[in-house]
Amino acid sequence: MSRISVRGFAVASATAVTTVGAVVGVAAGNEPASVNNTEATAADATIADIPAGAQAQVQTASLTQQADDQSTQADTAALKSAQESARKAAAETAKSKKDAADEAKAKKEAEKREKAQAVSRSATRDASDFVSKGSYSIAETQSMARQMMASDQFQCFSNIVDHESGWNYKATNAGSGAYGLVQALPGSKMASAGADWQTNPATQIKWGLNYMNDRYGSPCGAWSFWQANSWY
Fold first, then answer.
1. Angle ∠(228,230,232) on CA atoms, nearest 5
2. pTM recorded for the entire structure
3. CB-facing half-sphere around the CA of 228: CA atoms within 13 A
């Protein structure tokens, strides 16, 4: 407890007591004491000069005020802490949900792609399974394509080839240099599927099928992209 607060209380208490005494003195015919003198004297009073009961009141009032101040500060700090914790928790929850959604999407796309590739591999023949010829008709080329991919993928593959080359395995784009059934750009890319890429439609089909599976998951995935963009 500060000296100032005690002294202030002492002044008030001493002044009140003296005032009462003065009134009683007047009633008894005595000269009233000066209130100013009383206040001056009380101003120099310490806690020891205040009656025991008044001391208890001063101490109780001060402790109560301190407790109220500390409680208010504690409540404010607790509120700020709770708000910050809630903000962090909300941010972490949002990030976790986004990460989980992204992971689930990526996993689903990977599974879809792997499934399509597995189906294509398990139900197909390889380009090397066909005897090489000097030339091939559209019907022969389409027949090879059917045998080299899953039945549910052939129509999508055929739609792309129809637009790109009209099933002409020697089709050349004079402007870009794209070549073959699937118009590989440059055509020499198809050498990864076989050295006879310029003359063997089966080699071109093999390369085109691998390209569609790798980039779009399947020929139907490539066809969906083609429909939206007119290229693949």
1. 90
2. 0.50
3. 5
